[in-house]
């Protein structure tokens, strides 16, 4: 576009799943495709931003002109984000970070022995909350994938994680979200009086949704 509302800004965006190893051949992960995060990175670049994409394992090709850091685990994703975040104006946490990792990764392939087995899991760091808790935090945007009470949980997450904006979608509708090429979301933010505001983004391609999210962000900045 002829307008470049994000010129001069550095955006750091996480995308995709994380992969938490169990042993040398197995892992815990989720169905995130990375499409929404990659669409945000491509559109942010198009709108004039300098973009760093921190990506978990996906099938996608990084957008041209976007610095892409490939990671596997949540710990690696946090370390990669921290290596670039000091210069960021905006952080968008779009990755589906695994909430838990293995307490211990087995050094050798686990053998089947018993009828039952248990894996001990420990909580992963919350990358978005960690960035938002920095001393001079960038403007932080989160995503909330919910199957019920979408507005309630999104508003709660906005406040609890100290975000500037959250994009919420209803993942119980399988025609949108996850591996889909289209999406529909509701954006939530607080106005200068602290009153919750919201804007529904009608079903559209992830590229179009990404552009609308980024343009709303520039409105919040002004
Ligand atoms: O609490 P919940 O996982 O639903 O929050 C989702 C938001 O937080 C997303 O923006 C996601 O990228 C981010 N997140 C994160 N690190 C985690 C968990 C979630 O950055 N460990």
From TrEMBL:
<keyword id="KW-0479">Metal-binding</keyword>
<protein>
    <recommendedName>
        <fullName>Coenzyme A biosynthesis bifunctional protein CoaBC</fullName>
        <ecNumber>4.1.1.36</ecNumber>
        <ecNumber>6.3.2.5</ecNumber>
    </recommendedName>
</protein>
<feature type="binding site">
    <location>
        <position position="161"/>
    </location>
    <ligand>
        <name>CTP</name>
    </ligand>
</feature>
<feature type="region of interest" description="Phosphopantothenate--cysteine ligase">
    <location>
        <begin position="11"/>
        <end position="222"/>
    </location>
</feature>
<feature type="binding site">
    <location>
        <begin position="125"/>
        <end position="128"/>
    </location>
    <ligand>
        <name>CTP</name>
    </ligand>
</feature>
<keyword id="KW-0511">Multifunctional enzyme</keyword>
<comment type="pathway">
    <text>Cofactor biosynthesis; coenzyme A biosynthesis; CoA from (R)-pantothenate: step 3/5.</text>
</comment>
<feature type="binding site">
    <location>
        <position position="157"/>
    </location>
    <ligand>
        <name>CTP</name>
    </ligand>
</feature>
<dbReference type="GO" id="GO:0015937">
    <property type="term" value="P:coenzyme A biosynthetic process"/>
</dbReference>
<comment type="function">
    <text>Catalyzes two steps in the biosynthesis of coenzyme A. In the first step cysteine is conjugated to 4'-phosphopantothenate to form 4-phosphopantothenoylcysteine, in the latter compound is decarboxylated to form 4'-phosphopantotheine.</text>
</comment>
<dbReference type="GO" id="GO:0004632">
    <property type="term" value="F:phosphopantothenate--cysteine ligase activity"/>
</dbReference>
<dbReference type="GO" id="GO:0046872">
    <property type="term" value="F:metal ion binding"/>
</dbReference>
<feature type="binding site">
    <location>
        <begin position="93"/>
        <end position="95"/>
    </location>
    <ligand>
        <name>CTP</name>
    </ligand>
</feature>
<dbReference type="GO" id="GO:0015941">
    <property type="term" value="P:pantothenate catabolic process"/>
</dbReference>
<dbReference type="GO" id="GO:0071513">
    <property type="term" value="C:phosphopantothenoylcysteine decarboxylase complex"/>
</dbReference>
<feature type="binding site">
    <location>
        <position position="109"/>
    </location>
    <ligand>
        <name>CTP</name>
    </ligand>
</feature>
<dbReference type="GO" id="GO:0010181">
    <property type="term" value="F:FMN binding"/>
</dbReference>
<keyword id="KW-0285">Flavoprotein</keyword>
<comment type="similarity">
    <text>In the N-terminal section; belongs to the HFCD (homo-oligomeric flavin containing Cys decarboxylase) superfamily.</text>
</comment>
<keyword id="KW-0456">Lyase</keyword>
<keyword id="KW-0210">Decarboxylase</keyword>
<keyword id="KW-0460">Magnesium</keyword>
<feature type="domain" description="DNA/pantothenate metabolism flavoprotein C-terminal">
    <location>
        <begin position="6"/>
        <end position="217"/>
    </location>
</feature>
<comment type="pathway">
    <text>Cofactor biosynthesis; coenzyme A biosynthesis; CoA from (R)-pantothenate: step 2/5.</text>
</comment>
<feature type="binding site">
    <location>
        <position position="143"/>
    </location>
    <ligand>
        <name>CTP</name>
    </ligand>
</feature>
<dbReference type="GO" id="GO:0004633">
    <property type="term" value="F:phosphopantothenoylcysteine decarboxylase activity"/>
</dbReference>
<keyword id="KW-0436">Ligase</keyword>
<feature type="binding site">
    <location>
        <position position="99"/>
    </location>
    <ligand>
        <name>CTP</name>
    </ligand>
</feature>
<comment type="function">
    <text>Catalyzes two sequential steps in the biosynthesis of coenzyme A. In the first step cysteine is conjugated to 4'-phosphopantothenate to form 4-phosphopantothenoylcysteine. In the second step the latter compound is decarboxylated to form 4'-phosphopantotheine.</text>
</comment>
<comment type="similarity">
    <text>In the C-terminal section; belongs to the PPC synthetase family.</text>
</comment>
<keyword id="KW-0288">FMN</keyword>
